Amino acid sequence: MAKGNPSFTDSFYASEVNWNIFLALAHFRSYTRTAAYFGSSQSTITKSIQKMEKHLGFELINREKRPVSLTPEGLALRDELLSASKRINGALNKIYHNRRIAIALRFGCVESACRFVIPDIVIKMGPKLAKFSQTTGNSLILLEQLLNGELDIALVASDFSDCENISRIEVYREPSILVFPNSVPDQDNWTWEELKKLQIPLIFSSETSAAGKLNRSFLSRMKLSFDNHCEIDSDEAMIGLIEAGYGWAITRPSTLFAAHHPLRSIRVKRLPPPGFDRRLFLIAKQDSFSEELSEITAICKSSLENKLKTAAEKLFSVTSR
What we know:
There is one protein chain. The protein folds into three domains: about 10-85, Arc Repressor Mutant, subunit A (Orthogonal Bundle); about 100-175 and about 280-310, Periplasmic binding protein-like II (D-Maltodextrin-Binding Protein, domain 2, 3-Layer(aba) Sandwich), CATH 3.40.190; about 175-280 and about 315-320, 3-Layer(aba) Sandwich (D-Maltodextrin-Binding Protein, domain 2), CATH 3.40.190.10. Helices cover about 45% and strands about 20% of the residues. The protein has helices spanning about 10-15, 20-30, 30-40, 40-55, 70-100, 110-125, 140-145, 190-195, 210-220, 235-245, 255, 290-320, and strands at about 60, 70, 105-110, 130-135, 155, 165-175, 175-180, 200-205, 230, 250, 265-270, 275-285. The model has no long low-confidence stretch (mean pLDDT about 85). One of its GO terms (molecular function) is DNA-binding transcription factor activity.
C-alpha cells in the first residue's frame, strides 16, 4: 500500500484512480458484470481497483467474501462519492434554474410505453430544452444507464426498491391479460386448470426482463407450474409466435401494441382471479432534475391514462369478437 495520505485533489487527478469503475463495482457487486458494462475485461477491472487501493493506501474490497463486498473504508468512500454527486447535481440544477439555461434531457423508456409517452413529452417539453434524447431498453439496462450518468430520467417497469439514492414515482398500472391464437376455443372466463390442459405451451418472457420476473413471481405465489419450453425477450417475436398458433402468453396490453401490423389472429382475455398488475415508474437520481421529473410525471400519467387505457379497452372489444 502507498505511504502517506493523498488528498482528494491528488486522487481526483491521479491516473490510478477511476471513480466510475469503483462505483460500478460497488453497485453490481460483480467483476464480470462491471467488465461487461464498460466493455473491458475482468482483469482490467481488477487491476484498476488494485491501482486505486495502492494509491489511496487502503483496501476497498473484502476479498474473502462473495459476491463482491466493500471494506468499511470502501463503504465510507462509496457513500461520500454518492453524496458528493448528489450535492453537485443539486448545485447544477440551481445554476440552470437561476440562469434560465435550457438543459439537455436524456430520457430512457421501456419499449412498450414509448409510443404513448414520447410524442407528448417532446411536444410539450421540447421548446424548454436545449436537446431531448431518448433511449429504449429493458428496465434493468435503463437503471444501470441512469446510475452511470448516461440517463437523467427513465420510465421503467420496476420500482427497484432495493436501489438507494433514486427517486421513484408510480405513473400507471395496467392489468395482466391472457393472449391466445385464434385456434384456441373462444371463451371469456378461463380457469388455471383449463389453461394447464391447453395443447399449446405458455410462452415465457425472458427471465431477466421486468415482465418475466413479474410473471414468475405471480406464478410462484399462486403455486402454479407450467413447462418452460420457450422464453422470448422480444415483444414483437412473442406476438408473432402467438399469431402463428405456437403458444399463448401472460402479458400486458402495452406489449401487444409493439406489433407493427394490425392484430388479426389473436384473442385477448382477462386473467383468472386474482389478477395482477404491471406498474410503471419514473426514476431519477435523488435531487436531480426535480422540476423536469415533476413535469414529465404529469405528462406520462395523462398520456398513459388517456391513450394506453383507451387502446386497451378497444383491444378487448375487437379481439373478443
